[in-house]
Amino acid sequence: MSSMNKSFQKVFRKCLSCPAQGDLGRRYECSVCGQEVIYCGNCFDEGKNKPNKKHKYYHPMKAIYNRATFELYFCGEELINGEAPQSFKCAFCGEMGFGTEELQMHVLAQHNGHSDANDLMEILKRMNKVETDQDKSEPEEGTAASAMADNESTEIRCQEKSRGGLSYEVILAEPAPNVAVPKRPVTPGKNVSVEEIEQKLKAAEERRISLEAKKMAEISTKLAKVEEATRKKDEITNEFITQTKEQLETKMESVVEKREAIISDMKEKLKIHAQEIEKTRETLEQQKANEQKAIEEKLKIAQSLRDENIKKMLDRLKEHNTIKIAEIKTQNDQLETQKLEEKARIIENKLFTAEQNREKELQKKIEKVQKLERRAELVRQNKAQTQDMDGQQNAIASSG
Q1: pLDDT above 80 for 259
Q2: How far is the C-alpha of 101 from the C-alpha of 83, rounded, in Å?
Q3: How many angstroms separate the CA atoms of 304 and 307, rounded?
Q4: CA distance 263 to 271
Q5: The pLDDT of residue 74
Q6: Which residues on adjacent β-strands are paired with residue 13?
């Protein structure tokens, strides 16, 4: 029981894929990376075992259980070397149910040409060595030598028979004489009688039944507590509802009385306020009439004053306009003469520039015509020369 307690110690672990932490129950730990790569059972079953720079996809994952999950999955089976029995999956083809030695032979026979097969074989060799060291207290003589001889004498040949398929040919050496056959180590818990197995199964079944009964009792007590709590809650809510209903009714009655009193007071105040408004309206109308009369008188006086001022201003403007008009006419005449002189100068300049431009254009056209005449003269000379040459050639040809 002490070894069982040590094997099922409560440890704090955290899943890399989900927020689950603490005692994960059933967890999977990398055999190479150790506690750096841990997944809970649900995440591992869903295929969330994601590789990274250190943790590769072909690293074997070791299953670790607590006491409850071990009894549930293995029904009281004994531990092997302080651990639960392990079953590994091939990372290359997905086939399951291998031990370390079986997986090693499977990879050697089926996936020897894979790029990662050598790395996986080294990992499986180390795991197998650790298991054999735990199984054996003293290694037998001749076992290591025979294993080395077997490894050296065994030869596996790979040949591509068809496109996309491989065939393997295993050639074993002849049996060597006088070589001690290695005995397979006896693992504890293998030589168990049928009666012991039946007793263990019965004990596991009884423990399971007792656990289920205990759980059902706990569930029934919890349900009774929940029913009692709901009953008390209903009573409290009903009492609260009745009390609040009575309080609301009393409050409503007092609010209605207060509202009626407030409405009556407001009506009286509104009557008084309406009377005051009527009085102020009458006084304002009287003041408005008096002010309107005063404004009309002021407007009449202002109109008479304005007419007198307009007459005086018109007289002044007449006197001012006669003088100003003469000055403005003289100034306008001077400005018009200056503008005419300026326009005449501008026109003369434009005419002069136009005459120069016309002369330049005429000169350019004359030069072009002269060039054309020279070219035509050259053409005529060339044509005459060609005609002379043709005549000479014809005369030579006729004489010949």
Answers
A1: yes
A2: 17
A3: 5
A4: 12
A5: 67
A6: 22
Separation of alpha carbons 214 and 84, rounded Å: 26
CA nearest to 76, candidates 87, 85, 89, 63: 85
Three-state secondary-structure class, residue 29: strand
Q: Evaluate whether 91 touches 120 at the Cβ level (below 8 Å).
A: yes
User: What residues does 162 pair with on adjacent strands?
Assistant: 165
Rounded distance between C-alpha atoms, residue 370 and residue 247, angstroms: 127
Q: What is the DSSP string of 97-163?
A: -B-HHHHHHHHHHHSTTSTTHHHHHHHHHHHHHHHHHHH-SSPPTTHHHHHHHHHHH-EEEEEEEET
DSSP SS3 for 32: coil
- Residue position matching structure tokens 């199984």: 135
User: Which one-letter DSSP state was computed for residue 46?
Assistant: T
pLDDT tens sequence across 290-325: 999 999 999 999 998 999 889 888 888 887 777 777
CA-based angle 133:130:157, to the nearest 5?
110
pLDDT digit string, tens, across residues 275-288: 999 999 999 999 99
SS (H, E, C) the chain: CHHHHHHCCCCCEECCCCCCEECCCEEEEECCCEEEEEEEHHHHHCCCCCCCCCCCCCCCEEEEECHHHHHHHHCCCCCECCECCCCECCCCCCCCCECHHHHHHHHHHHCCCCCCHHHHHHHHHHHHHHHHHHHCCCCCCCHHHHHHHHHHHCEEEEEEEECCEEEEEEECCCCCCCCCCCCCCCCCCCCCCHHHHHHHHHHHHHHHHHHHHHHHHHHHHHHHHHHHHHHHHHHHHHHHHHHHHHHHHHHHHHHHHHHHHHHHHHHHHHHHHHHHHHHHHHHHHHHHHHHHHHHHHHHHHHHHHHHHHHHHHHHHHHHHHHHHHHHHHHHHHHHHHHHHHHHHHHHHHHHHHHHHHHHHHHHHHHHHHHHHHHHHHHHHHHHHHHHHHHHHHHHHHHHC
* Residue 178, pLDDT score: 52
Q: Measured in whole angstroms, how far is the alpha carbon of residue 10 from the centre of its chain?
A: 38
